[in-house]
Amino acid sequence: MACPTLITPTSKPQLLTTIKPKSTIIITNTNTTTTTTPAATTQPCRRQLLSLTARIIMSNACLDLPLTQAVLASSDEEYVKETEEVINRVRTTIKMEKNDPNVAAAVADLREISNSWVAKYRREKNLLGRPSFRDIYSAINAVSGHYISFGPTAPIPAKRKARILEEVDTAEKALTRGR
């Protein structure tokens, strides 16, 4: 049975006509006329603009090469420092008692720090293969998932807490080994 509100075309669709650019006629003093299109004479081609942009970007990228090596070296130290901070926050937040009045604030703080850590290091290709990144990412995911699902004051079950602490310990060991 067909739907009564279905709109069906009653006529054949027509092809759209192509729009041709208007040509201009230029008359010079020598009584010769030339016909040109305005796009060819006044505006640069898109291809030329893209190639010029690519040349500019590549020349800047080649000039910044020594600078990026220095940035990568400092980012490794920064990664270690920030990951240790996240590890400490995960441990202290997990080990807090259920009746502690600061649990909700600690969970909110952990969520903010873990979100910024993940947003910063998730796209770093050189960090994705590290065991420390993998383990701490997994621990952050488990902790965040628990608190999002059950609320900031819900205690973490013993099995989940043991697995998270094990992942955090493994991540910390890998971090001290430079992995």
UniProtKB/TrEMBL annotation:
Cellular component terms (Gene Ontology): chloroplast thylakoid lumen; photosystem II
Q: What is the protein's major site of localization?
A: membrane
Coiled-coil stretches are none
Keyword terms of this UniProt record: Membrane, Thylakoid
An example GO BP is:
photosystem II assembly
- Membrane among keywords: yes
Q: Which InterPro entries match?
A: PSII_Psb27, PSII_Psb27_sf
Q: What is this protein called?
A: Photosystem II repair protein PSB27-H1, chloroplastic
